[in-house]
Amino acid sequence: MARTFALIPAAGMGKRMGAGSNKQYLMLDGMPILARTVQTFEEADCIDAIYLVSPEQEIPFCRSEVVERYGFTKVRAIVPGGSERQHSVYNGLRALEDIEPDDLVLIHDGVRPFVSVRMLEEACAAAREAGASVVAVPVKDTVKVVREGVITETPPRETLWLAQTPQAFRYDLIRAAHDEAAAAGFLGTDDASLMERQGKPVRVVPGDYRNIKITTPEDMILAEAFLKEMK
Ligand SMILES: Nc1ccn([C@@H]2O[C@H](COP(=O)(O)OP(=O)(O)OP(=O)(O)O)[C@@H](O)[C@H]2O)c(=O)n1
Ligand SMILES: C[C@](O)(CO)[C@H](O)COP(=O)(O)O
């Protein structure tokens, strides 16, 4: 029976947040953002094991303040990250132990704490059928392509979606996509794009406008508001 491994990159520096400390440990209603994220994976029956990726020097802190403090039993390892998100994910993929080609890997940003069990289940089901899936939401605004301060294109909105995470893949497919991207020196901003450049199909699964990536200070205000409403 194929298993599902979660890989949670949390090795960024949080430069755009400008908090002076890593944003994955900022508190949301008394709980670090990263712990809120991991909690959903811990609760989801479809997830067998969790691997976290952290800056190497923060691994002991991550272990004590997230894994041990909240008693997460599915976390198998905390892997050192790299200079870009893609490098961190690649380190994580290479660290997965006893993984088989047809096992699933579900990759999710450590700073998207509003992921739900529903999204995890649907992303997994779609990846089992299609090999790869991405949780996404339709764009609400009109998007312009701008070059040197001038609009060069207005792509039809019905074709535009915002890619979120989780993104789920059969292990052999995403491993091959990362191996090839690394060999070619290609850097993408998400994992699905590495499969897209190989011409492989990636299915879209409904995400949620609340499944935000906490990136800049105003995202913390939104996150607090979402939490307040959920109480
Ligand atoms: N070298 C990196 C960069 C990012 N990430 C992780 O990828 C997710 C999405 O990245 P982003 O929001 O861009 O985080 P940061 O890189 O920390 O932000 P910034 O670009 O503002 O520094 C986060 O969970 C982040 O910790 C990572 O594991 N390794
Ligand atoms: C993977 C991702 O969350 C999809 O939206 C996103 O691309 C990562 O964001 P970053 O700001 O490029 O690190």
Automatic annotation (TrEMBL):
Q: What is this protein called?
A: 2-C-methyl-D-erythritol 4-phosphate cytidylyltransferase
Q: Where is this site: Transition state stabilizer?
A: R16, K23
State the protein's purpose. Catalyzes the formation of 4-diphosphocytidyl-2-C-methyl-D-erythritol from CTP and 2-C-methyl-D-erythritol 4-phosphate (MEP).
What lineage does UniProt assign to this protein's organism? Answer: Bacteria, Pseudomonadati, Thermodesulfobacteriota, Desulfuromonadia, Geobacterales
Q: Does the keyword Transferase apply?
A: yes
Its EC number(s) = 2.7.7.60
Write down the NCBIfam families for this protein, in alphabetical order.
Answer: ispD
| Protein encoded by which gene | ispD
Q: Which UniProt keywords apply?
A: Isoprene biosynthesis, Nucleotidyltransferase, Transferase
